[in-house]
Amino acid sequence: MKLLQWLLGIVVCAWAGQYVLALLLPYLAMEALYFLGDKRQGHNQLVVAAVPDENSRHVVRPSPDLLYASCIYNLKEGALTIEAPVPARYWSMQFYQMNTDNYAGITNQRAERDRVGSIANVTLISADQSPENYEGDVIQSPTSRGVVLLRASAMGDRSQQQAALDASICRPADP
């Protein structure tokens, strides 16, 4: 009887533990990414990564077919401006909060094809700021910290996509 109670206790703890782990793992992964990225590149500035290979881990599960740039942000110091030229081939700007949820995105695909050749100019604000106080594309982050990830196609001649990422910026917004 004692053995059955122990086994039942282990099963119940394992069953409950999987849910706790599933809830905490995204936060833990993002905190580790944020800490390492902030240490390596600082926050509120864009860094263009080297072309990924099988050993690259600056982006979780990187694709060798994509070029990456990232801005680890902290909006406690104010809003950010993200500017990026939009090339003709695949390109996207994705916004992630600290639980790894992708809460906003801009691309040059499908309905947003008209962005090709323009400069995406986004103001990223915190949840307690009002979008009405800013002009243009305004994205409101649900958290004060997170990551902006720019991706562009690296297939074939990637000079235009690389130049677009190199010309992109992430900086504190003008007051």
UniProtKB/TrEMBL annotation:
<feature type="domain" description="DUF1254">
    <location>
        <begin position="44"/>
        <end position="157"/>
    </location>
</feature>
<dbReference type="InterPro" id="IPR010679">
    <property type="entry name" value="DUF1254"/>
</dbReference>
<dbReference type="Pfam" id="PF06863">
    <property type="entry name" value="DUF1254"/>
</dbReference>
<dbReference type="InterPro" id="IPR037050">
    <property type="entry name" value="DUF1254_sf"/>
</dbReference>
<protein>
    <submittedName>
        <fullName>DUF1254 domain-containing protein</fullName>
    </submittedName>
</protein>
